[in-house]
Structures
1.
Amino acid sequence: MTTQTPVEHLDVLIVGAGISGIGAGRYLKAEHPGKSFAILEARAASGGTWDLFRYPGIRSDSDLHTFGYEFKPWRDRQSIADAPRILAYLREAVTENGLDAHIRHHHRLVAASWSSESARWLVEVERADTGERVRLSAGWLFSASGYYRYDEGFTPRFEGRDRFRGTIAHPQHWPEDLDHSGKRVLVIGSGATAVTLVPAMAETAAHVTMLQRTPTYVMPVPREDGLATLLRRLLGESRGYALTRRKNILKGIAVWRFCQRFPKAARKLIRWVNTRQLPAGYPVDEHFNPPYDPWDQRLCAVPDGDLFRAIRDGRADVVTDRISTFTERGVLLESGRELEADVVVTATGLNVQAFGGVDLTVDGEPVHLPDTIAYKGVMLSGVPNFAFAIGYTNSSWTLKVGLLCEHFCRLLAHMDAHGYDTCRPEPADPAMPTRPFLDFAAGYVERAVDRLPRQGDRMPWLTSMSYHSDVKLLRSDGVTDPELRFTRTAAPAAGRERPGGVALR
């Protein structure tokens, strides 16, 4: 990637204007107000997931007191909130922190090439609105693009799909003109999206059936947090939010640890709760008793038990079986039963994609992600000046993003104080055993595990999923480490100015 024309230089280039990228921009602006940065967003609007998905009932599956930012109190009464409220909150954060001018919409990062000689990334960006290619240079790349493909959801191959005479929709690409009122709806899937869609569509559909191959753990949770409302009233917005956030962090950790340490007891408790929510005599073990232990995959939260209520009211039901083939009127199951439908929703998951699918090269050598190891869950071995934001799989995503953004800002301050311009993680033991970066049993992770980075068997190469451990690692401990190499680049050649300039030839 070479150019003879002047290239705009930035200190930090953030990729993605979703919940992670907005947070990264705010921390960077607050801690390093003198640094130049931009946030590239491939789509026409900020908000990431919360602007992309438009299917009925879309909501968070984490409480907003922990899913929200530490620096911005969540003031809405809904604790498990729907997408429009979350999107409004994120866009308020953009405006309140002066980030609008830093976000460049319709900018998709295509490739990024690191040069050790200049200690810079040269990046190629595609303008979706004009089709042109532009180039930028940056001292650091910060990937806040999440872990799945925004342009494509996952749909398995279904035999006979083309024979179906009704409408088929995927939640990631919801048709604006889809009217399911008075129609028979079949939702294929059992994850968070499916358990959200079923009660939402059942409000106006003739009937909704959730067809699943394997049950999922589902738990009712209050949509509103009464204690949070009381604490805000007594202590004020900021203090009440901080205390609620701390309370919910501890509660989430306690639930996860209980499930991990006492899986049989957790299974019995969840089954007991489900039984109380469902009609008498309902086959709980057939439809709500997974073969795996609680929190081997993420638990699905249903606000105020809306899924169970739809089943009790007869507006929805659950079928556990496998699809043999689509028919003209619906699907034929392996059991021989046919489920008729007017609308089929394939809530079958996501396609995992690391770092937005960007092609990375370091000094002309392509970066093969499975050969890299995650350093503190925020950088990659052998890749200089590159950071990324991946949140928790067992807790609120944003809890980790906030900590790693703080750590990133402290790392920049350390480099500035000592005159370093390059930072590269390198394992002291090249033969260190590794395992998957996302050590999680979900299908969407297992489908992509061979295309993702790895993690090691010891710190700082372990990817922590513990908030308390990360508070110490990312907030309290220093940023230096024997396996993190800091260097200063020699004086730049003529025509290649240091950060702050614009010439790059």
Note: The chain has a mean pLDDT of 91.
2.
Amino acid sequence: MKEKSVIQLARSLFYEKALVKVDGAYVGAIASIPKDANAQDLNYSEIFIRDNVPVMIYLLLDGKHEIVRHFLNTCLKLQSNHFQTQGIFPTSFVEIEGKLVADYGQRAIGRVCSVDASLWWVILAYIYVKRSGDRAWAASSEVQIGIQKFLNLILHPSFRDSPTLFVPDGAFMIDRALDVWGNPLEIQVLLYGALLSAVGLIQIDLTEKGYVTPQSRVLKGDLENSFEAQQIHQRSYAIAWLTRLRNYMLKQYWVNSKIIQTLRRRPTEEYGDRVANEYNIQTEMIPHWLQDWLGDRGGYLVGNIRTGRPDFRFFTLGNCLGAIFDLISPAQQRSLFHLMHQNQTALFAQMPLRICHPPLDNDEWRKKTGYDRKNLPWCYHNGGHWPCLFWFFAIATLRYKQRYGLSHADGEEIHLLLQNNYELFLKRLPQQNWAEYFDGPNGVWIGQQARLYQTWTIVGFLLTHHFLKVSSEDVNIMNLPTLKELSLF
């Protein structure tokens, strides 16, 4: 098929078969398009917040602001008021006989709530307001109350002093047991983006109410216990949390060859406030494959930090979002892109992009996944290939090129990498029915249990086409406010 025909096919599938209505208006897309309109295929006919991230970004680029607003409002109606889960957003929802039915994890394998859904809602809300200019929606009481519920859920006392968010296995895109419990990278990066977005939305509301600075009116007696006073308190607390979180992530999660060599030589069994090896990482826990993986210029954010058990696996989405949200510095972003280019045979292969590398194998797979047949080595989330991830890499690299520039050689490398993989999409995705994921060391085989006509595969391709062929300027759509900008308010 020619490029134009593939684009027309993808748009037709998306707009005519994937989008669904709630309350009589389009609200978002189902996870995958069924062969038979009456077929029930697990929960793939539901509207997932996570799966609708690329959908909402594409709709904003296509000027369909009203659908995005309806999606955000529908999710907001479903924000939990239950005592134990107050403030969380559902993993998914569906309209059945005119009634909205939401899943907060009670139907998931492992019965785990999708923490990333709540974090993504706040980020999408900010992106919607920035793109549409709908400041009135941001300043509405419903939205601001929803943000306060979310912040009360996140910014609360706990048994841990770490600024990271502690979650179980299955709490994000990797939604089955894969030894990602604790402080997984993707959740921490999304937490950073969500807090930036929440503060940005609060400041829009305060500005609309005439608060030129946070202190300008809050000290008046009639406002001391007001909702605005709570907003200003939460804003201040969130900014302090953001500062701690970024410093922590750069110190504990970022590695390159020099840092690894330092880690290997640190003492163990230390106690006290001033220690070099805070998490008591033994040399044996640092894998030898890192030598070739990092090279002399590469760097990335590791998958997890836990006492004595760091996870050095490379997780694609968390690293790409770390660049998009400017969690890592421009120099670190350049090191990340170099690492991904250097290891393109492993990460991109014949179907970009691999979700994590390397996969758990042999005894590790058996013990850490519980013999999960879907997560066999090189399958599904255990080293499988997900085309829905490629547009995040495209945004990260093109955004960096626009803001900071690249040398001629580096620019050519990135351009060729993007173009070659886009050509792979054009050739393979229509032939293989827009499969959900691909298996094997090279990503050649359609996933063993992959759904076909997966919406985020279709929309991920459309986004890649848009950024590479239509408007590279639009890669700035996911820009969030910076810590410096928020602190100046």
Note: The mean pLDDT is 94.
3.
Amino acid sequence: MNHWTTVREWLSHAYSVLRWVLPIAVTVHALRRKQDTAACTGWIGVCWIAPVIGTVLYLMFGINRVQRRARKLVDEHAWSGRETLGQYRHAAQGNMAHLARMLGRLTERPLMRGNSLQVLHDGDYAYPVMLEAIRHAQSSVVLCSYIFRNDRVGQDFVAELVRAKARGVSIRVLVDGIGSGYFRCGVKRALRRAGIPCRRFMHSVWPWRMPFINLRNHRKILIVDGRYGFMGGLNIGAENLLKSKVKSPVADTHFAVQGPVVRQLAEAFARDWSFTTGEELHGAIFFPQLTPQGDMPMRVVTSGPDADLEKIEYGMLQAITLARHSVRLMTPYFVPDDRFSTVLTLAALRGVHVDVVVPSSSNHVLIDYARDASMRPFLDAGCRIWMAAPPFNHSKLMVVDDEWSFVGSTNLDVRSLRLNFEINLEVYDTAVAQDLAAFIDSRTRRRLTHHDLDRRPLWAQLRNSALRLLMPYL
């Protein structure tokens, strides 16, 4: 009995010490590291209420280890070839010159002229072009996709990659550790059997790696021979083949890019690959000399919970602030943070025509509920919210004043704007902007009204508001 009494007393004393030491340590760390006031206050409060459990949760989910590691990689790795592209730097003119200057300083990437862009709607049109590019690859293929299914579409890509490897092409494939299968990733096994390097981003089943489970690589990049780039919102899966009459079709928009800006796409992939594997990609097979392929000024913008934190959102906010006539947004998920919501509603209040096109029903019903809870302030400010008809459209498009376009992988929700690793492309070309604006306008089927919100029952409004609080984890 004396032994157990001594143990209990020791545990009691230990808990008394931890009861103060742990929350004090978390408070000091959060005050030094957390810029978000709400997050800082929340973590401190949780740790003082439940010192042990709160501290464990803070260690797992409250510390951004990714940002620290990414900055180390930026310091250690020098991506070759940038100096050769200086002749293609472009100085934007007019109202958007302010935006170009800001994004140049923010991203540390120059605006590049001499590019061409082709819009590819849906997998029916995009996949054949992408597969044809791989079919003619001579030196390298790098591919990053959030979802890479092992279905008939995925198998077509695997088959072309295997044939490219047999020709001596150097290949690297990066898929997300959750989006392409957490417990089972069929496409990784198929590629590895063929001897093709394929890795899963932020994937681990070990408990000490759990802090990274909520951070996902949502980028979609394909680059062939370092010259032919593809990016946008399109994943690799049979659901994107609309003409095949699949059960749950997904429409989407992808982009084929050529010109000096492809170097920036290649560098974005190289950073992700180095971050995941430790291998640094270099040499002419991945970074060849590039020549002009058109006359469009473009720039890649990346964001993620690393050294690129919130850069895509900052670009969007600045573009909306500079808008004089119109802002068009098309997104599959629309639950932006308070900062984005404020800038968008202020634009509408000063007379800018703000149109937001969202699907009537997306492929995530919980996100739809959360979205519906945030619509009233936009309607009050005069924003026009349009519910697009089926099929569900996964495109992420932004057009400002029919002059500037911003396209890529970023959804307008908290996860994409802050937690995911995303990639967008800004295009300073009036023809592209007008074509994308016309496409967005063609999807405006039914306008949401205050009456639509008011007629929802109270229980549905409470459900929607509660789910909105969980947006970073949906």
Note: The first helix runs from residue 2 to 33.
